Amino acid sequence: MRYFLIDHITEWKSGEFIKGVKSVxxxxxxxxxxxxxxxxxPGVLLLEALTQLTGWLxxxxxxxxxxxxxxxxxxxxxxSFALPGDQVELEVQLISxxxxxxxxxxxxxxxxxxxxxxxxxxxxxxxxxxxIEDPDEQRRFFQVLxxxxxx
Length: 151
Fold this sequence. Notes:
The chain is of the alpha+beta class. It has helices at residues 43-61, 135-145; strands at 8-13, 17-23, 66-78, 87-96, 103-112, 115-128. The mean pLDDT is 94.
């Protein structure tokens, strides 16, 4: 199963930062077992949401030629839980393009109503979008996420 953990991209600046939203719905299947009768969004999925947002930044910044694949979490702090009904505001910023042009370092944060849920610093490889997805489909999906496409 594949989780799409970004519901809306609210702002981005090519090669610099991106902001988005993840709305946690009670119907998410991962909540059934995490934890029974006390559902919370797993912290690792908050990290995955930041990673997916980073992929969208790389794709949009490269005219959908590149994508980001995480390879190392340098630092990650979890502050409290994201619960059903929460709207997690996510932001990712480029820290360093790195010495290797195919490796970049990012910092991401996740907040709910101004309260920190996660802050992470991570690095990863820049890979061709075409190796993992159809670039034209990704471009169209990005338009849906940014509300640029009229539905």
